[in-house]
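Sorry, I am new here, but would you mind making up a protein's amino acid sequence and the C-alpha cells describing how it folds?
***
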Amino acid sequence: MTDRYAVIGNPIGHSRSPRIHRAFALATQQDLTYEAILSPLDVFRAIVTEFFADEAGKGLNITLPFKEQAYELSQVKSLRATQAGAVNTLMKGKDGRLYGDNTDGLGLVRDMTQNLGWTLEGKRILVVGAGGAVRGVLGTLLAQKPAQLWVTNRTHSKAQNLANIFRAYGNIEALRFSDIAPQSVDIIINGSSSSLLGELPPLAEGILAQDACAYDMAYGKADLPFLTWAKTQQATISDGLGMLIEQAAESFFIWRGLRVQTAELLAEIRAELA
C-alpha cells in the first residue's frame, strides 16, 4: 500500500510542499504520494479526521490559517509545538493517537547555521514581528544560546507577551523600534508580514553591527523591502527559501526516519524562482 501525505491550507495553490516532498521521496526511494488539499475554513477538523481514517494516511503538513487548530487537534505535542502554540506537522502514531510537532524553528536555524554558515551562539539577535511565524521560531533560536534575543513589533504589547512566554528558555526581551541602540544587532530576522505587503518595518539606519546578517522569513521576490534595506546597511542577507526546505526535511524525518540532502533541491528551486 502506498503511504499518503499532504499539506492542508487555505489558500494552498502557491504551496511548494508537494514539489519538495516528492523530490525527497524520489531521492530516498520511498513509496508515497504527497498532495495539496484546500480546506474550507470551517471543515479543517473533518478533513484531518477523514485523512487519517484512511489506513494509508500517514502524515500531514499544516499551513496558514490552520496551525493553531492543528495544535488543538494534536493528542501528543512536542516541546517545539507547545512553545509555538501551533503545529505544522501531524503524524498518526502506532498507538492511534495524533502527534503534533512544529519544524519551523528548526528549519530556520538549520538554514542559517548549516546552509549559510552563520553563528548564532553568543550573538545579539533582533527578531521583527510578534505573530505566529515569530512565536514558532523563538524557542529554537533561544536554544542556540544567543547573548541576547530581542523581539520588536509595531504593537509593543504583542512583543512583550512573547518575551514573557519565552523568558524561561533564555535571555529574551521586548524592545520598541525607537529603543534599538546603534550598532547593537549582529543578526536581524524579519518574521513580520511587512515583506508580503511590500512594506519595510520602521527600522532606523545604523542599528546593525559590523558584519551583521539579515534574514527574511519570506521568499520568492528578489526585491523584498527588508533585504533591500539590509543591503544598504552592508549586511549579509538571505531570504527564507532555505527555511522552507529545511522545515520540510525535518517533517520528512519525523514521518519516515530518513535524513535527506537539501542543497541540490534548494539550488533547483532557487533557479526556478529567478
Remarks:
- The first helix runs from residue 17 to 28.
- The mean pLDDT is 96.
